[in-house]
Amino acid sequence: MALGLIFLFSLCFTLCFAGNVSYDSRSLIINGERKLLISAAIHYPRSVPAMWPELVKTAKEGGVDVIETYVFWNVHQPTSPSEYHFDGRFDLVKFINIVQEAGMYLILRIGPFVAAEWNFGGIPVWLHYVNGTVFRTDNYNFKYYMEEFTTYIVKLMKKEKLFASQGGPIILSQVENEYGYYEGAYGEGGKRYAAWAAQMAVSQNTGVPWIMCQQFDAPPSVINTCNSFYCDQFKPIFPDKPKIWTENWPGWFQTFGAPNPHRPAEDVAFSVARFFQKGGSVQNYYMYHGGTNFGRTAGGPFITTSYDYEAPIDEYGLPRLPKWGHLKELHKAIKLCEHVLLNSKPVNLSLGPSQEADVYADASGGCVAFLANIDDKNDKTVDFQNVSFKLPAWSVSILPDCKNVVYNTAKVTSQTALVEMVPDNLQQKDGSKALKWEVFVEKAGIWGEPDFMKNGFVDHINTTKDTTDYLWYTTSIVVGENEEFLKEGRHPVLLIESMGHALHAFVNQELQGSASGNGSHSPFKFKNPISLKAGNNEIALLSMTVGLPNAGSFYEWVGAGLTSVRIEGFNNGTVDLSHFNWIYKIGLQGEKLGIYKPEGVNSVSWVATSEPPKKQPLTWYKVVLDPPAGNEPVGLDMLHMGKGLAWLNGEEIGRYWPRKSSVHEKCVTECDYRGKFMPDKCFTGCGQPTQRWYHVPRSWFKPSGNLLVIFEEKGGDPEKITFSRRKMSSICALIAEDYPSADRKSLQEAGSKNSNSKASVHLGCPQNAVISAVKFASFGTPTGKCGSYSEGECHDPNSISVVEKACLNKTECTIELTEENFNKGLCPDFTRRLAVEAVCS
Ligand SMILES: *[C@@H]1O[C@H](CO)[C@@H](O)[C@H](O)[C@H]1NC(C)=O
Ligand SMILES: *[C@@H]1O[C@H](CO)[C@@H](O)[C@H](O)[C@H]1NC(C)=O
Ligand SMILES: *[C@@H]1O[C@H](CO)[C@@H](O)[C@H](O)[C@H]1NC(C)=O
Ligand SMILES: *[C@@H]1O[C@H](CO)[C@@H](O)[C@H](O)[C@H]1NC(C)=O
Ligand SMILES: *[C@@H]1O[C@H](CO)[C@@H](O)[C@H](O)[C@H]1NC(C)=O
Ligand SMILES: *[C@@H]1O[C@H](CO)[C@@H](O)[C@H](O)[C@H]1NC(C)=O
Ligand SMILES: *[C@@H]1O[C@H](CO)[C@@H](O)[C@H](O)[C@H]1NC(C)=O
Ligand SMILES: *[C@@H]1O[C@H](CO)[C@@H](O)[C@H](O)[C@H]1NC(C)=O
Prior knowledge:
Blueprint: H1 2-15, E1 21-23, E2 28-30, E3 33-35, E4 37-42, H2 52-61, E5 66-70, H3 73-76, H4 92-101, E6 105-111, H5 125-128, H6 140-159, E7 170-175, H7 187-202, E8 210-213, E9 223-228, E10 244-248, E11 260-261, H8 265-277, E12 282-289, H9 323-342, E13 346-352, E14 355-361, E15 367-373, E16 380-384, E17 387-391, E18 395-399, E19 407-408, E20 416-425, E21 437-441, E22 452-455, H10 460-464, E23 470-479, H11 484-488, E24 493-498, E25 502-507, E26 510-516, E27 524-529, E28 535-544, E29 562-570, E30 573-576, E31 581-586, H12 589-592, E32 607-609, E33 619-625, E34 634-637, E35 644-648, E36 651-656, E37 683-684, E38 693-696, E39 706-712, E40 722-736, H13 747-753, E41 760-764, E42 771-780, H14 799-807, E43 812-816, E44 833-840
Parallel strand pairs: 4-5, 4-12, 5-6, 6-7, 7-8, 8-9, 9-10, 10-12
Antiparallel strand pairs: 1-2, 2-3, 11-37, 13-14, 14-15, 15-18, 16-17, 18-19, 20-40, 21-32, 21-33, 22-31, 23-28, 23-31, 24-27, 24-29, 25-26, 25-28, 29-30, 33-39, 34-38, 34-40, 35-36, 35-39, 40-44, 41-43, 42-44
Helix pairs in contact: 8-9
The protein binds 2-acetamido-2-deoxy-beta-D-glucopyranose (NAG) (8 copies).
EC number: 3.2.1.23
Catalytic activity: Hydrolysis of terminal non-reducing beta-D-galactose residues in beta-D-galactosides
GO biological process, one term: galactose catabolic process
């Protein structure tokens, strides 16, 4: 009874309100207690409110204590400094309340500059056009609006009582972001700005500490923190500060036209274990759920609409296996060590040329050891306290009692899964099977009144101010009847140079070709033969941005759009059109009229068609349909489309562009987790579209009558569009007898018996599904991967029945690799394994 009360009280004390947050050189101190914290970045505008509770819950189940988010200034003040928006997916307070209700803490990275592969780094475009403004330096306007926004957010948080000092979940706030990389480019103004930002933040009196990440001259009033793939060697500038890792990148972002990067779970776990081994106390995954850059929020240029990031929770909200599970086991193992780690001084021992132990022993007899093998090729057997331990290459073993290994970063014991996008044809109930497509075709060039004319070119971004991706540059050229190419059937060649980001060229309303830059380089050249006729020819060039720059010194001054247009092949040589009279039109007619929204859809005359036109540029398609069956998350398959924008019921799905990466990139079939990770280490999908599926949140669908609108720029086949459902078709595990487990009930007990581990396979189905079939089970020496396991030389024929008995019709099950379950006499000279593949339904 008394114990129960104390337990309830302390639970409430830590979870119901955080209270006083301070720190010392070891860790944050919350209500007088040192804390070792696992944090997970989930950005509220990159999912929808209907997903937030489940995302937060999945993070908590994954062993996460803290949710971390940026505040995205340009979604809260999109058009002017006098208006604030916090509706829908921009409802910051609602998001934080959900985190608090889950009993978790929150780190609020106010920025307001965020980078984050987010449009314009999170700063509203209007601020660039306030005369005399220079971003992120000692500039009056920038500091004025930055302070105003920061103060507004802090006041909002205070009003809602969200800071820990008020009983809320916010334990830390961040000002600026990774400024240290760029400060030098701003000279003395940069230094003054960084110091001002820290002082401005601290003077907000939030009652919780402020952090600055990658800020190499941060003042002592804030905590400077680390962002990298590895932060074990990081040291805060001041010795009284704890070691905090604000961005551990468990994957990487994607770029239209590039292959997809992968970071193996073993390496992520290695980096985290090394950080805690070396005295770290707060570690944040950036991202834990990456989500989606809906609409035109992706930064750039060329960042994909998906911001999956190969994070522990995938874009669609499903745990990514085995990464999510492997890190969950890691968090469990680290938490077993928390008290001793935080309350003792480490001693490090060399165990070999690239092997080392850090041992933490406290006064009450507690002992924790981390044994690391940082050799990136060779496994190694080491002696530690007179016991020998086998350490796989590039791994850390965690011993919460200095005796038993409960976790090794290279041994993945958690289940894995096969995830598929199962296509579901677009459909509509009401009897008629055929969908009723309707189309509206934009004119190539000027629609309505021209916006303005000019001899020569204007900058694209200065002109659109990012109200749209699109800017038409049009002119005309008169071709004499005596041009040789007309007689010879030759084609003159159109040569264009652009600062970016992409372009479609039309002559006399016909698409002649397209060009675009790429992730490393947005300026590009266009060179294509074109068809010209005698007499007047209209040249209409559709210039496009694909996300504004989001980082770099003076990034707001980087331009886009045409810089040179020439046509070669005339009798008199090459004609330079650059100084011609150009007529400009900002945006598309359909955008202007809002025809993608239910309230604007009838403002043009759509043409009904039984067969929607294929390969037709500048076409708006609309169709009314039912939601896909089931309740799995949904992705719109745009493999057979060209490039454009998509909406459902007026909600912005975003830019689509199934742009393929080069087949000549270096892709891998297996990723070796050993050795330092870099984003180009383990690419997949060479020669494939970078992004084929586009997340459409379930909550955007109505039971029927859903309006899907697509704007296709260059031509595609809309009849091949499908909604695909994201399904875990199989769950799998492959565990060896010698795999450790952080689930041991009592370490001492296990230690005293012998070191025979009770390795076990744990399987669980997502979303309350049950295991309906066991497709494969083999105890012995099975090989292969999830979806393609095969029996080895050694196989216990009872394997299937043992697994079926334990798992069929259950949401989750555990099978221990014990004598009772399996024939342990089998091939005693091998380390035996159990492989299982099961189906959930
Ligand atoms: C918060 O904790 C710090 C360090 O433990 C202590 O110095 C300070 O007085 C506390 N503040 C409040 C308001 O309790
Ligand atoms: C900003 O400067 C431009 C010219 O540099 C001028 O045309 C414009 O009126 C100015 N705007 C404001 C608000 O001062
Ligand atoms: C080991 O500990 C010593 C003494 O605290 C320290 O100087 C040294 O940097 C540590 N070595 C490593 C690799 O952490
Ligand atoms: C290891 O063995 C040596 C010699 O047998 C002994 O002196 C020492 O105390 C042992 N160390 C531990 C940690 O058991
Ligand atoms: C060259 O030929 C083009 C196309 O016939 C014509 O428009 C242009 O005026 C000519 N330029 C000169 C310098 O004659
Ligand atoms: C990106 O574009 C630049 C300039 O056009 C080119 O030099 C570079 O090779 C391209 N890179 C890739 C990966 O396509
Ligand atoms: C955009 O316009 C500003 C003036 O408002 C000018 O200083 C800047 O150079 C222009 N940018 C480009 C890329 O032309
Ligand atoms: C599983 O459930 C199905 C249908 O409810 C039933 O027919 C079957 O006997 C069950 N199997 C086991 C092993 O419980």
